[in-house]
Amino acid sequence: MDAAREIDRLAGTLRDYEIVDLSHTLELGIPTFPTHPKYIIADYTSMDDVAEFKQLIMCDHSGTHIDSPSHFVPDHDDPRRISTADLDVSQLIGRAVVMTFGPFEATSHHITLADVQAWEAANEPVRDGDIVIINTGWSKYWKRVPAGFDYLRGWPGLSGEASSYLRGKGIKAVGIDCISIDPGGVAGDDLKAHYEFLPNGVLVLENLTNLEALPAVCLFAALPLKIEGGTGSPVRAVAFVPKGNHRA
Fold first, then answer.
1. Do 45 and 191 touch, CB atoms closer than 8 A?
2. Cα 71–149–113 angle (5° rounding)?
3. Which CATH class is domain 3-242?
4. How many angstroms from the chain centroid is the CA of residue 50?
5. pLDDT per residue as tens digits for the range 124-172
6. Cα 68–Cα 200–Cα 215 angle in degrees, nearest 5
């Protein structure tokens, strides 16, 4: 089959899928991790230019974003320190399993290895090369601050043991609908999920949304900006879901 016919076949297949947007809107007042720079968008008028444009000031972890390995590999001589511009974007495109847990109170709940294995037994085993998406229902708290401060209090996340298990399954990325893949209330060496995934080349996505609309298995894609030296990047994350399987 020649290349043009193969592209036509793929395009025809995708017509049978609905695209679900999994990204929050970047706007003034969005929740940010307490130590991170805030998102700012401002009007900008240039002399003798009739076009309209804006000036953006933001962290490379603003909104729905990915963490690059360099986010948790501080040694510049360490070969595991991969910045955003050097990522293999194929790690962010592929089959995804969508694990649903909760609902949770703001108690910094640790999703355990037993939780993950129970979900697999009831739904779909994680395969080598999968992207794992964790749906906790926490995105309902995403609002402009000050109301959005609730999003930053006691969110759930993966335990170190669960993270180690998923990495051992050969996944290429993991995402969650919270401000961090680690639960709230942990810091430093206790950020076990970050330390398990990023230095081992597993990319992390945070602040996903609309996960309740997804079935247990979907096609996922998220492309970062090509930022030299970046430790992350905002993304437009989407899922491709067979028509009729969208949980509207």
1. no
2. 55
3. alpha beta
4. 37
5. 999 999 999 999 999 999 999 999 999 999 999 999 999 999 999 999 9
6. 70
CB-CB neighbours of 47 under 10 Å: 4
User: DSSP 3-state assignment of 242?
Assistant: strand
178: DSSP letter: S
Cβ-based burial of 194 (10 A; exposed 0-12, middle 13-18, buried ≥19): buried
CA 201 vs. chain centroid, Å, equals 15
Provide the 3-class DSSP secondary structure of residue 89: helix
Domain regions of the chain by residue span: 3-242
- Parallel, antiparallel, or unpaired for β 203-206 and 173-176? parallel
Say what the pTM is: 0.93
Which DSSP helix (H) or strand (E) runs through 175? strand 173-176
CA 8 to chain centre: 30
Q: E strand or H helix at 17, and its extent?
A: strand 17-21
Query: What does the block give as tokens for 162?
Result: 């669960």
- Contact status, residue 163 vs residue 199, Cβ threshold 8 Å: no
**Pair of tokens at residue 7:** 């592209």
Helix (H, G, I), strand (E, B) or coil at 86: helix
